[in-house]
Design goal:
The chain is of the alpha/beta class and 253 residues long. The protein has one domain: Rossmann fold, CATH 3.40.50.720. It contains ten helices and seven strands. It has a seven-stranded parallel beta sheet with strand order 3-2-1-4-5-6-7, with helices on both faces. It is globular, with a radius of gyration of 17 Å.
Length: 253
């Protein structure tokens, strides 16, 4: 368990399920006060209740991170409830698989809005508060697809590569204010986003064969890394991109 998280004020987007849910619970277990945000109100309410039931402090915020007004409200509600903001985890994301010639405009807008533009907007809204914190942390959830690319994921891969670029740029800009900015790049993680593909037994087997550790990841594999980046143990680490994929990317090189 990452140390020095007691009383730390954190905002986690996409906290209603999968990686975001695991991150919110992990941070709360470490002592963070967690604002859990998700577009689905029932899910984020459930996560907040779960955290409180485990002895943690949680605030549920229903928000669409692709909408500027929701980003502003989400940030304001978090700061108002906690008296400030120390950690932002930009986790909200959506998937979209299609060859480039068949990519639809509506899907381009949707994936860009949630996966990349939200990271820009949330970072912009949170930065003044993180500067005041004295131990500000931004952790962006990118993807191995932002590093290696995939023939079926041109838009998704582009957004995740953009998140990596944002991470490195913001790390340089905010370092002098004591704010660190890092990213995690999960590989195949057993989440709701991946479940339709895993329903295909042949694809499932092929995916596992591509991972040297011969298993898929679980959300908790990512949550531990995020908690580390949120802690004081990572205070001299910034601009880092940590791949969490069981060796899949290394094997491909």
């Amino acid at each position: 368990m990452a140390k020095d998280l007691k009383g730390v004020r954190a905002l986690v987007t996409g906290a209603g399920s999968g990686i975001g849910r695991a991150v919110a619970r992990r941070l709360a277990a470490g002592g963070c006060r967690v604002a859990a945000s998700d577009v689905k109100e029932d899910r984020v309410d459930e996560v907040a209740r779960l955290i409180r039931g485990e002895g943690g402090d949680a605030l549920a915020i229903a928000a669409d991170v692709a909408q500027q007004k929701d980003v502003d409200r989400m940030t304001t509600e978090t700061v108002s409830a906690f008296g400030g903001l120390d950690v932002v985890v930009n986790n909200a994301g959506v998937g979209y698989a299609a060859f480039i010639e068949t990519v639809e405009d509506a899907e381009i807008d949707r994936v860009l809005g949630v996966n990349l533009l939200s990271v820009i907007r949330i970072t912009r809204a949170a930065t003044p508060h993180l500067k005041k914190s004295g131990r500000g942390r931004i952790v962006n959830v990118a993807s191995v697809e932002g590093i290696r690319g995939s023939g079926l994921l041109p838009v998704y891969s582009a957004t995740k590569a953009g998140v990596i670029g944002m991470t490195r740029s913001n790390a340089v800009e905010l370092a002098r204010f004591g704010v660190t900015v890092n990213a995690v790049c999960p590989g195949p993680i057993q989440t709701e986003m991946l479940s339709p593909l895993l329903a295909d037994e042949k694809y499932h087997e092929k995916l596992i064969k591509g991972v040297p550790m011969r298993r898929l990841g679980v959300p908790e594999d990512v949550a531990g890394a995020v908690a580390f980046f949120a802690s004081e143990e990572s205070s001299f680490i910034t601009g880092n991109v940590l791949v969490i994929d069981g060796g899949m990317t290394v094997k491909a090189l």
